[in-house]
Amino acid sequence: MVNTNLYRIELKRYRNSFIGWSISIIVFVILGMAFYPLLMQEDMLKQITAFLENPFMKNMMTAFGASIEIWTNVLGFYSTRNAMIIMLIGSFYSILLAGKILAREEQEKTAEFLLAKPVTRLEVVRSKLAVYLTYLVLLNIVILIIGFLSLELFKGDSRYSLKAFIIHWFYALLLMLVFGAIGLFLSLLIKRGRPITNLSIGIIVGAYFIDILSRVTPAADKFGYLSPFKFVDPGVLRYDYALVGWRVMYFLGMSLVFFALTFLRYKKKDILV
Amino acid sequence: MGKMYVIETHGLTKYYGKSRGIIDLDLKIEPGEIFGFIGPNGAGKSTTIRTLLGLIFPTSGSGRIFGLDIVRDSKEIKKQIGFMPSEIHYYEKMDVLELLRFSANFYGTDCAPRITELAETFDLDLERKIIDLSRGNQKKVSILQSLIHEPGLLILDEPTSGLDPLMQAKFFDILKEENNKGTTIFFSSHTLSEVQKMCRRVGIIKEGKIIAVEDIETLRKKQLRKIQVEFSQPAKISDIECPGVIAPKVEGGNIFFLYSGSMKDFLNSLGGKDIKDLIIEEPTLEEIFMHYYSEENGKH
Q1: Residues of B with CB below 8 A from A120's CB?
Q2: Lowest-pLDDT range, A199-208, A252-261, B95-104, B250-259?
């Protein structure tokens, strides 16, 4: 069971940081999408098309999964430009929150207080996990709403599939969940709960570049599957775009494995404060 | 199982990797007693307490509190424990009342009247943020959170450091009050004098091992004294001949030793000797430890 007392306190404790991250995502999405109508102006589109003819820029665009054809569709623009940034920000939020929420008790030496109360180790992990999941889902609800609003606001003449938008959104949520699970587990491997901020950022950035590399270099395509980013299907404009079983299984499987490892580890961990 | 102890450990051992925590600890704490747990820093006091509380897990051996297993039944046990850690670290953004409520809620009891009452006794402002409190006031918060749910066992890890003498006296009064209501108290400290006032029995721990468990009365009766005698002439050990002299040491004209026995006999034994100076003082805790230590070694 979740300890409601601990859940409530922790929820309050991470509320302000949640609000901060939400605001930054909202700002990013709105600023990002505001470029779409500009891009769609006739002369601007021509200029950009010409600019993108050069091979270097073509490669760059491929790296980000974009092309001018994709960009002219509002959802294509959203998914390659905004959703990418959202996935990055969301993944940072997820891994940092999860990497902190449990380890912080050791780092700030409050574990001695907490674990002297009548709670089991598992209740502590479950309560903290529940807080983490609450905020992860809330952040993604913010993303869903602001994403939808920005698409509607800036779409102009462009048409898009709401279903594709939601599927892509859901992939991103699963991606963030995997990073959270990894962060939570890694934070427990560190003695006395020292912060793993740098490691976490390194993991996200590393995974992101592995994914990009695999897109630019066809030879490295398989290599890309080392990165969770690779498992997000970017093809929002395909008519058969859907939630694919093996992708979803990958995300859920990875998350479950790391959550399970966290439970096993925390159950036996010596808390040295 | 025979007699029921509040705390009972058998061969409780904890190693951190290869480094020693506690070795083969056998403790038996009786219901309603105040037990002093004495040892220098690094002796294993906190390791013992953390093992009892399930913060760390024993390498071998076992322990029971209220008859429940310290590893398996840790949650049940902790419902009946109040714990005061040696170092205080709280969620700094909380104010005092918030922290105390948070603490009390774990026990599922409404502790509001008791919080108010205790806060008044200790003159503690409930609306201040924890981070703004002085060390002494933080210590008071620690006292309160350990007491509000009226636990059957109080585990106190060096509880008096940072408390001014007035608060210390109040604190001891409250401990006695709780004890009179039947609360067993496990009081860890590195100063014997502090524990002497409170405890009926003390256990002495050194380098991870319990080297003695004694009634305070017995300790007092032993009246261990630290004595230095200075002779006009270079001294020999044989200059001091009296039963009860422990571990004499000669340095120039001085002989240093511990003495346990009648002061009259000792002074008589010095009669007629060419003494320049005589210093008799209360031994430090460390010296008492050494005494127990040498006794312990002598036995084996």
Answers
A1: 74-75
A2: B250-259
> Tokens in use for B185?
């108290």
Q: CB-based burial of residue B135 (10 Å sphere; 0-12 exposed, 13-18 middle, 19+ buried)?
A: exposed
Q: What is the pLDDT of residues B184-203, one digit of tens each?
A: 999 998 877 778 778 889 89
Query: Which of B59, B66, B89 to mutate to probe the A interface, most A CBs <10 Å?
Result: B89
3-state secondary structure of A273: coil
Nearest-angstrom CA–CA distance, A65 and A235: 9
The residue of chain B with its CA nearest to that of A104 is: B91
- Domain spans in chain B, listed from the N-terminal domain onward: 7-220, 225-282
CA–CA separation, A128 and A98 (whole Å): 9
Subunit contact B75:A115, Cβ cutoff 8 A: no
Its pTM stands at 0.86
ipTM rounded to 2 decimals: 0.84
Going by C-alpha positions, the residue among B221, B222, B203, B220 that lies closest to residue B212 is: B203
d(CA A264, CA A146): 38
Which two structure tokens, joined as six digits, stand for B19? 């480094």
Quote the CA–CA distance of B45 and A193 in Å, as a whole number: 23
Longest Cα pair distance anywhere in chain B, in angstroms? 73
Fill in the DSSP letter of residue A81.
Answer: I
User: For residue A141, what are the contacts with CB-CB under 8 A and spacing of at least 6?
Assistant: none
Q: Which CATH architecture has domain B7-220?
A: 3-Layer(aba) Sandwich (3.40)
| Closest-CA residue of chain A to B100 | A113
